[in-house]
Amino acid sequence: MKETERERESERQTDRQTDNNTMVSISELYSSLKEIVDDDDHLQLFEDKLTKLDFEKEYDNNVEYQNDKIRKDYLQVNPNFDWSLLDMFQSVPNMDSAVFDSSNNNNNNNRTSLKSYDYKQFIDLPEFQNKTNFVFHRNGIDGHIETYEEKTSLKDLKEANGANSLSITRKINGRVDKITGTLNQLPFQPGLNESTREVSVLNSAAAATTPQQQLHRDSLGLFDVPPGMKRGIQPLIPTETNNSSLDNDLNKLTELDNGEEVEEELISYDASSSTAKHGNILQQLEKTDAPKQPSMQESKENNVEIDSLLPETIDFARYVPKTKDNEGEKVWAHVVDIHHRTLSNFSQLVPNPARTWPFELDTFQKEAIIHLEQGDSVFIAAHTSAGKTVVAEYAIAMTKRNMTKTIYTSPIKALSNQKFRDFKQDFEDVEIGLITGDVQINPEANCLIMTTEILRSMLYKGADLIRDVEFVIFDEVHYVNDQDRGVVWEEVIIMLPAHVKFILLSATVPNTFEFANWIGRTKQKNIYVISTPKRPVPLVINLWTKNTLIPVINQDRKFLPENFKKHKDLLSGAPEKPTKQTNNKLVKSKNGSNNTNNNRITSAKGSAQKSFSRFSGPSKTTWPTLINYLKSKDLLPAVLFVFSKKRCEDYADWLDGLNFCGNRESSKIHMIIERSISRLKKEDRELPQIVKMRQLLERGIAVHHGGLLPIVKELVEILFAEGFIKVLFATETFAMGLNLPTRTVVFTEIRKHDGNSQRFLNPGEFTQMAGRAGRRGLDTFGTVIVMTYTDPLEPVTFKEVTLGVPTKLKSQFRLTYNMILNLLRIEALRVEEMIKYSFSEDNTQSILPENEKQIKLLKEKSESIEYGSCSLCTKQSLDAIMGLVAEYKHVKSLYMESLSQLKRLNQFLRKGKVLVYREETSSSILFKLGCVFRHHNKTSGASTTLAVLNLSQGLSLSSEDEGKIYLPFLPNRPAYLKNVFKKFTVADSFTIEDIALTDIELVTKYSCDISVGKLFQKDENEYKKLKTIADTLVESFSTITEERIISSLTVNCHQYRDQISQIKHKLSAYDCMVSCPNFVLHFYPKYFQYEMENEISRLTHLTSDENLKLLPDYEQRLKVLKEAEFIDDHFNVVLKGRVACEINGGFELVITELILDNFLADFSPEEIVALFSVFVYDGSNRNDLPDMKPSTPRLLVGKTKIEEIYSKMLKIFEKYQVPLTIEEEQFLERQRFGLLNVVYEWARGLTFKEIMNISPESEGTIVRVINRLDEICRQLKSASLIIGNSELHAKMSEAQELIKRDIVFAASLYL
Predict the structure, then answer these.
(1) Does position 173 have pLDDT exceeding 60, yes or no?
(2) Radius of gyration of the chain (CA)
(3) What is the DSSP letter of 582?
(4) How many helices and strands, by DSSP H and E, does the chain display?
């Protein structure tokens, strides 16, 4: 201890010695500074640092404390410096933008402070990245610049990648899945309007290598076509008449020696190019082998000669010279007439087809193939089983030959699986692939089959696969009318790049040309519409009444009224009593039959209300009797369409005594069933649905509806295609794209419940289902049967359903938050442009070029207006009068509209009241005198209409060649009226005209006491009386006074009338309106210019984004995204927005809130996947379902949290008045948590049979919900990678493993 104390004391002595030495050194330092520095100011500065230290009084004589303070302040390293020290060692740059305040001085350092300062000098701005070059267009021998254009830098294109470029030639990112893409990549540039041509030019230029590859050589190997030019110099053969002029030009060229100037220009250009980092443009050019270009005259002559060699049936390659008339109006859709063509020379037009068939192709198929070979897009509209798939097969064969790819899109996943199986069987030499949410089979194939949603995701994520695609085939295009999924079709069409060609396959719809022209105009592609309304197998439509088959529409689609009447007679003779039905349920009647009940529905046009007051249904003997009849007439197999899942199965049970299969067929069916379900677990093979379906199938009977397990539905489809099933009870889903023709189609009724109410089938739905009848090559005609039971059908309704015009293709485009966030993220296409290019805006956008042309003409007219010189009518006075006249006309119209709301209007405008009114057309404004004849009860817009007896001819203030002009008819100003309106003329014949209340210019105090009845009876005395009144009014029109209504006026009426009085008073101040005899002539140019400016404003509004129908909705949704913090104030997508981009199944905002709220951290994978079932199960509004409460307290907490977040988002939606879908609006009302316990128990490991005991829904619904949950889990995994939540990623992976098992995820039989 003593040694330690000695050591400490020794250290203290050492420190004191060091401090004394420090003080000595500091004194010596200042002494030396005094000797070096001569300036007293600098010397004082050094002295102040030491002598003016602020020591506390009690430590003034404490040397040790003073030394410590000096050492701490001046000898220790301190990162903080005060301004006095900083001023010693640095100088702050003075800039022009700096404003000093000399009044504020610091007492310590006398430093001038800054009120404001521009600190840009301290910011190191990076060099500006210029991605474009200006290309100059020169002309003449001297090469003077005429125009220029801005083009994308070729060097940047060469260095482009998925993160910074939209170009199709960008580098491939090997670390990203080229099939699915990623959100870190930009999509490819959509092929829209001007971008189509620009991208093609940039792509060809980007692939260039050396200058010599781009330059063209003639037959001697000499360069003859300069870069950037279409052709080289074409010298003319000199003649005697032009030798002198040619010699002069040649001499001028010889004398012109500007080689040094050109060399200097090139040097300066190279220097500027290197500074701008553009590089040598010539090294970017592509080699082209363009033939020598002929002269314009030779080209025209050659085109005409070629046209003479083409067959008469070919018109797509003919030379059409451009004229001013056809240059602006471009029609992109072309209807191909196939009615009078046989194309006997098809083998010559397509000498080396990519694919052949063992049968003769139809004309529409040949036409389509010809246009595909020409590189065009096609739209095929034909009936079911007409052979549309042949066109798709040929396109697939073309991609095999061209070493490209085809994408075949289908509306539903089940149809994708079926098409995969069909194409695998049809194509032996072409690879076929399938891409779904959870399966990728042969993704490198020439033909890839997928749903439209998968293709949409690939486009937004910039999948590199798209660059190899030549064709995209859209099957079942008429499903663009689907309210929920139709928007996806339009998104895909708009987002596809320019190089992709379209093949659209659809049922017959009336507006194929309109839809095709929209695609052509949007994508700048010619698209050929090929329709074949004639069915290859005609249909005969019959009624089944009292066990009698009555044909009512023959093979030529001719309605047979006499036969139709027979079914009424049969039903009225001995009506069969329908079975009793109640409460929308099937109940047992006394004879044991099952029947359905339909609520009373609104009567259709042409039908009696009585016929819908009750429902007539089948009895238990109806179907056996019908089926036996069809079997006797060899009309099996038959598909019976039933619009209820439960009735499908009940009707099949009614055939318990029928067996359509022999022992051999039953054995084959048994083997197919066993082979199909062998992939299932034993307990799944014993599910009640599978056991029941096995019994039906082995007798040749089946059902097909959405409630079946997917493997059971596929088994039914395969057996039906093989011909083993003779009777099939199916819902309308069987007609959705499945190519399964049959001999007979039976409609159990022609009404259905669409989710809201009962209604008749529309013609498109009837045609789609009836089109399954008639097997090509097997049947001469297809048989369609419509069932009637006790009530006869009305002929008008029946003909509307069976022979009516199919539903038109209508745009279902709507904005979704996922779409908005994706477009804001990628910036390849603005949301406004997506709206503009949608099918809903087609009518507006199609007339856009014409509107722009009209605006240009109107501006030229407005600028060319000349004003006459007049000392009275000055420009300032005419401008002021024009403003007052326009205001008067507007306020007068509002005043008359407000009068239409008065109860005493009929008294004010009573019969016989004399009026001055306008008759305004597009070319003239006529003023007329008349009297009220009668009031109409109807209204036109907001204006009440009147019947007026015309008393005078129309008076125009301008001549016919000048155009229309308006000036107010001001009462009590006779001089003005005589000067402007001159004189009215009595009408040659008194007629009655309908006018709007807003067309009334003046209501006078006078009334006509005329008997209209006598006028109609051509009473001469009454006519003379009316003539006398008209003469009097015409002669004294300038002294007419106004009727002023005072009582019962609204506040608005008083305001408008006061404004009118003020305007009249202001107009009276301008004497030129009275004194100038040519006032109307002088005023006309000003009014004409005013009209032109109004029309320009109207057309400009039509052509601007402000006219877009969905623009207000977009602005409201942006406010929602901003308040919910998915985007920032500058509309940049932030983290929450990027997460929402990964959720594309709906409710993306709510799901994102759940993810980032850390809501999922407290739940297990089983609970998470169960809670998220609320977003994929659409719920039910049925009252018979039990109340499915969460089975655990934790699930109840999760349910409450989801409802809380959704309510919060719903308030934001309501705040900004965002329109909601029915699904979004009724989210909290429908029983969307109905499958919560079912999914939870499935994830915990219960068997499918066990969860069906607690499920309120059918097996098929459960499988669809769990399959969609797998997709949700996949999206949540991607979202977890964005936010870096590894725990959530692990939970979602585990949840997928828990639900992907057994029969729910059994492999498709088509695969």
Answers:
(1) yes
(2) 43
(3) B
(4) 49, 31
From CA 1014, how far away is CA 1001, in angstroms rounded?
A: 29
Residues 1187, 1256 contacting (CB under 8 angstroms): no
* Tokens representing residue 1065 in the block: 């008073």
Q: Is the peptide bond before 637 cis (omega within 30 degrees of 0)?
A: yes
For residues 628 and 156, the model is more confident at: 628
**Residues 6 or more apart in contact with residue 974 via CB below 8 angstroms:** 1038, 1039
Place of tokens 């600028």: 863
Residue 982 main-chain phi, psi, to 5 deg: 55, -95
CB atoms within 10 A of CB 808: 14
Tokens of 292: 């020598």
Angle at 433 between CA 430 and CA 435, to 5 degrees: 160
**Cβ–Cβ under 8 Å, residues 330 and 373:** no
For the record, the structure tokens of 412 come out as 């539903």
Give mean pLDDT, residues 1176-1189.
Answer: 71
Q: Are 815 and 1110 in contact (CB under 8 A)?
A: yes
CB 917 within 8 A of CB 1000: yes
DSSP-assigned states of every residue in 156-170: HHHT--TTT---TTS
Name the helix (H) or strand (E) containing 1293: helix 1286-1299
Instruction: Express each pLDDT in 1092-1102 by its tens digit.
Output: 888 888 888 77
Report the alpha-carbon distance of residue 145 to residue 137 in Å, rounded: 6
Question: For residue 878, with 0-12 CB atoms within 10 Å meaning exposed, 13-18 middle and 19 or more buried, which class applies?
Answer: buried
State how far the Cα of 924 lies from the Cα of 954, in Å rounded to an integer. 10
Judge whether 648 and 752 are in contact, CB under 8 Å: no
- Judged by average pLDDT, the poorest of 100-114, 207-221, 1180-1194, 1254-1268 is 100-114
- C-alpha dihedral sign at 1133, 1139, 1140, 1144: positive
The answer for residues whose C-beta is within 8 angstroms of residue 783's C-beta and 6 or more apart is 539, 540, 542, 635, 743, 744, 745, 773, 774
Lowest-pLDDT range of 349-353, 436-440, 1236-1240: 436-440
Residue with tokens 């500091």: 26
Q: What dihedral angle (degrees, nearest 10) is formed by the CA atoms of 673, 677, 682, 684? A: -110
Among 817, 1133, 822, smallest CA distance to 181 is for 822
**Is 885 in a helix, a strand, or coil?**
helix
- List all residues 6 or more positions away from 973 whose beta carbon is below 8 Å from its beta carbon: 1068, 1074
Token code pair at residue 669: 């069916």
Residue 996 contacts by C-beta under 8 Å, 6 or more apart in sequence?
940, 941, 943, 944, 945, 946
What's the CA gap between 835 and 1113, in Å, rounded? 11
**Residue 316: both structure tokens together:** 């797509």
Looking up tokens 């005060």, which residue turns up? 82
Q: For residue 634, what are the β-bridge partners?
A: none
Short-list 391, 363, 360, 389, CA closest to 377: 391
Rounded CA separation 283/290 (Å): 19
Q: Could you please report the per-residue DSSP string of 361-426? A: PPHHHHHHHHHHHTT-EEEEEE-TTSSTHHHHHHHHHHHHHHT-EEEEEESSHHHHHHHHHHHHHH
Average pLDDT, the chain: 78
Which sign, positive or negative, has the C-alpha torsion 959, 964, 969, 970? negative
User: What is each CA distance from 1200 to 37, 101, 1196, 1255, in whole angstroms?
Assistant: 81, 62, 6, 22
Neighbour tally for 286: CB within 10 Å: 15
- Asked if residues 312 and 344 have their Cβ atoms less than 8 Å apart, the reply is no
Asked if residue 1294 has pLDDT above 90, the reply is yes
Rounding to the nearest 10 degrees, give the CA dihedral for residues 1049, 1053, 1054, 1059. Answer: -160
Q: Which residues pair with 113 in a beta bridge?
A: 101
